[in-house]
Structures are given as structure tokens and as C-alpha cells.
Write a structure and sequence with these properties.
Helices cover 22% and strands 17% of the residues. It is globular.
Amino acid sequence: MSEQTPHTTPAAAQPYYERHIFFCLNQRSNGDACCASLGAQQGFDRCKAQVKDKGLNGKGHVRVNKAGCLDRCAGGPVAVVYPEGVWYTFVDNADIDEIVDTHLAGGQVVQRLTLPDDVGR
């Protein structure tokens, strides 16, 4: 029987993606507030297109992902950027463009769009 070597990552290794942004696209069937009913899909689509158009996508850059419920519906629609763990709310394409240009490309948090810590479900 051969011995398997565990996968190891050098301490100084760069992450596969510099940043991930997750958009809650959860749809509630019981009529409760949810990100899907507040334009989350449009925000996701806009972000994905902007990231691609600006050449920010791919290894070492940015990944735009769909997510189920992130449990912060009261502030919806919501998205969260990792590794920073910055939560955003948004209302239109201009907000998404600002998140892409300022945070995803520039590394600076868009303070006016951050979701307060006390906003939850």
C-alpha cells in the first residue's frame, strides 16, 4: 500500500484569487424579504460583466460568485468581499461600478455602501 503525501501550501503562497465577491441570490417562497426580490441578480450580472470588461477576472484577480442566503436580508440586496469580509448593500449599477472600481480593482472599501454590523435577518 502506498503512503499518500498530504497537500501542503507554502506559507508565502499567493491565494488563487485576490478577492472573492459573493452575491446573495436567495429567493424565499414564503413572501419574506429576500435579496432576489430586491435586484440581487441584476447586481451580480453587472458586477460579473464589469469585472470581465476591466480584465479583473481570473487567477490572481477577482472571482464573482453566487451565494444562497447570507442571513443579512434586512440590508438586502447584499454582497460580501473576501478576504476583507466587507459587507455591501447596493441599489443600482452605479453602486456596483463603484464597488468594482474602488474595492475590487483598487483595494479601498466603499464606506457609503457598507452594511452596518447590526443589520441581520
